[in-house]
Amino acid sequence: MALYMKAAEILDKVEQKKGAVKTLVYESKYQNIKQLFALVCETHKYSSVLQEIIDSTSFLKETKLRIHLAKVLAYDLLIGRGVKCGGTWKVMMMKHRSRLQAALARIKIKRKVSRNEDLLPSGFQQMQGDVIPRFVRVNTLKTTVEDVIDYLKREGFTYQGTASRLEDLDRLSGKSFLCDLHLEDLLVFSAKMDFHNHFLYKAGHIILQDKASCLPAFLLNPPVSSHVIDACAAPGNKTSHLAAIMKNKGKLFAFDLDTKRLSTMSTLLLRAGVTCQQLANQDFLKVDPQSSEYKEAKYILLDPSCSGSGMVCLRDKALEPQEDKRLQSLAAFQLRCLNHALQFPQVQRVVYSTCSVHSEENENVVSACLQQNPGFRLVHLLPNWPERGHDPFKQCLRANPAKTRTHGFFVAMLEKRSLQREGENVLITTTLPAGGEEKQDIQQSSAPDEEQENSETASEHPTNPGSKKKRKRNRKKTQNLES
Question: Care to name a GO molecular-function term for this sequence (predicted)?
Fold first, then answer.
């Protein structure tokens, strides 16, 4: 009963665009997060079909249920694994089962389909083919990749080595697994593998985190003992990743305005063995960059609130007018956060990321920020990554199920430019992600006189004398974001 009440509450907020499913589910503190997340996502996918069934049977009038509660109950009864509650609700649903099933059958006949999946809107039907593997990040604060692999092999899992290409991930089945081809502390399993009740997960030795979500901390790659800011930190997976990269040394300042989310995050970090964090229930926009507390903060990870449109279960269709207004509001907030991050006097690198597929929240925000902060430029990230930012922001990364086998995501890294003072070149020293070609490429893009970097980023900055028209267009975009 509690499951359906909570699912209905979250579904209502999702359909009113008050937050992403993942965020709302974590905030709920429901005991079985996975079960709640699945029920909300699946009901949301079939929402229009369920609405049609409910309307055609006068179900609401006879049961006096609210629409979102009726939808989650009808989903489990007709499409899911059966109603999981007992008592009067179960009796009520069994009483109306035949009528609801008949309504579903009539809809299938009308649309000339035989499967429930064929009733989904086209956007969700395409999504059905986007099977994302189960990614498991090894928490190196508590164990090693080698030890986790050995442990799993003793449990009957089959280790197939390190993936050499993305297609290797598609062939995973049963208890076979691989080491990811980009992130060495990431293991990859078939999509059906579940670790929520596994000892390694409960003990904090592994973190269940999508690969795209691992990219921001991996690319920021703060040195051991550095001072780092995680600006919008909850629910904490990226924070724990940063702490692991820092080897729990230095200081990790983590901010979040939501008290409940911060409480959830505190529990997660405790389980992960993180000790270098300083949590603050505070709005990042109100943090004083000039405070002596942050005088050594050189690395900032900014993953602000966004539309969540990259989450597979929330794949959206064409933007409606009200959604466009919401995106503009989100983008304005994201731009303020990114501009604020660049005000910290010692900051060298800022990674900006979203789980959104919309340019309004991604390339447009980065473009406006660079216009307002000519002292920073983009770093060309992972040149072999298969999905790049939209033109002209090829330095940035995008992710999606089809091309990267992940949820939809966007990552950009802004680096402080070399400063010329009285004829002297001052080069900002940074720590680079390890790994062959990627390291070499990033080093080249950081060089103050690099011709390739200049040609790639010239149109983004107001210092380019040959881009007056583009500067006018970008100023208009910036004004729209700020309004």
Answer: RNA binding
